[in-house]
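EI: anyone free to look at a 177-residue chain?
SC: sure, send it
EI:
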Amino acid sequence: MSQKPRRGLNKGGRPRKPTALHKLHGTVRANRQPPPYEPQPETDLDVVPPDFLTPNQKAGWAYAMRYAPRGLLKALDRAVLVTWVEAEDRHRTAMMTQARLDIGNQLPLLTKNKDGTAAASPYLKIMNHAALIMLRCGAELGFSPASRPRIQLIPGGGPRLIEGEADPWDELTDAAD
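SC: here you go
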């Protein structure tokens, strides 16, 4: 006797579109209720980076927060953004280290083993792994070109300003007056 799979397991097909994207696209339908368990975060993610990040990672956080559409990143997205920032920093560090090793090297991206044979640099593996993490997190956060069409900007949105920074739109508005 065969058992039916339990509900929720072995689901095929496309992943369900989040309700927030339905709202942004204007495709919310009255006959389709959002799942009761779907989180609806309301609090925007803080522009100030977490204290535990390194200075380079804080710069990556500031970059992401500045260029992410206003209202897109919520407090619940903090861990995903921290993972993206850390992977971006690790990728940059490995890339810069590899570039220093490649200076004057006839075979870039290669190192020599103990027996003198050429082998791929270990920094390539670090860069590739960090790049995969960045791509996965970036797709979840709407940072990739492929994920951007799913997201529409909120009217009045724009880059977030870091405290004390002048808004470039103010200059345009003042010039038009």
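EI: The chain has a mean pLDDT of 79.
SC: 👍
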